[in-house]
Write a structure and sequence with these properties.
Helix 1 packs across helix 10 (285-291), helix 3 crosses helix 5 (109-125) and helix 5 crosses helix 6. This protein is an alpha/beta fold. It has an eight-stranded mixed β-sheet with strand order 3-4-2-5-1-6-7-8, with helices on both faces. The chain is 52% helix and 15% strand. The radius of gyration is 23 Å and the shape is elongated. The chain contains eleven helices and eight strands. Helix 8 (226-241) links the parallel strand 6 (217-222) and strand 7. The structure holds adenosine-5'-triphosphate and magnesium ion. The site of magnesium ion has 5 residues, from helix 1.
Length: 303
Amino acid sequence: MRTVFFVGKGGVGKTTSSASLAFHLASAGGKVYWVSIDPAHNLCDIAGCRPFRGAREIAPNLLAEEIDMERCTEAYIEKNIARMKETYRYLGILNLEGAFDILRYSPGMEEAAVTAALADGIRRYRERIDCIVVDTPPTGLMLRMFALPFTSILWIEKLSEWRRTILGRRKTVNSILGKDSPYREAGDEAGEDPVLRELGVEAERASFLKAVFADACVVLVTDQERLSLDESLRIRDGLARIGIGISLVLLNKFRALNETGKRTIEAFSDRTVVKVPFVEDTADRKVLAETAAGWAELITRTE
Ligand SMILES: Nc1ncnc2c1ncn2[C@@H]1O[C@H](COP(=O)(O)OP(=O)(O)OP(=O)(O)O)[C@@H](O)[C@H]1O
Ligand SMILES: [Mg+2]
């Protein structure tokens, strides 16, 4: 199974290109899960269907889903506040419960929620899907999303280490104070510790996503505007910092090569740059599917 991410500056044609690939592969008989994690959704606009919740088969072999960022972030926060309150129940005596409600305003919640939703979607459908096509959010959020599993793994390792130290100290206090120990209720066994268990769940999800990202095909969509090239270079460098390479570059809405186009080809001379022609009717599914005919094979072949 292949996972393909479409990245690029706003308006260059990420959603359109992801639609092209999704329709192309589905019309050739491949089972496709086309998912948008862009808060400004337009999968439905492009596919010409009414917005819907969850995943739905919008064409034969083509399952589409728009992850509602706002709803999924809200749900993620509520679920995690509840989990934290449950995990740290014993802190109730210190009246620290309210501190968890502040999580609502914590930075990083959007990318955490969106990557969790993406991981769930991939897990749910990967057994019956040949290709997952992902339309990504704007660059800043997209880069944070890709970086998240890498940073999470480092943090989880550190937090687990600290947690084990805390449990070790508790054990010492418990053995000295016996039934008078304030930690008697909280427990001191690593195997039974709810915090370590939660960290384990997060570690598993982060490793799963890290593997998905490391194995994915990243398609950079750009056009011949100078600002698109500037952002493309930032994306390339940002992804390179976390060890993710760009597999293919689409020079979209192509009519005639200009200076920026030449610079783009030069900047990505170690990659295949495909000129994707400007098409008159991007709302036509057949036209979209045909647009990908020139490059879809490069993706399915890229390792
Ligand atoms: N090959 C093409 N030929 C002609 N028009 C195109 C082509 N690709 C995209 N477009 C048009 O460019 C506009 C932007 O495309 P699209 O919405 O796919 O970009 P995007 O990168 O997803 O934008 P956003 O960052 O806002 O999500 C749309 O009007 C779309 O129809
Ligand atoms: Mg888009």
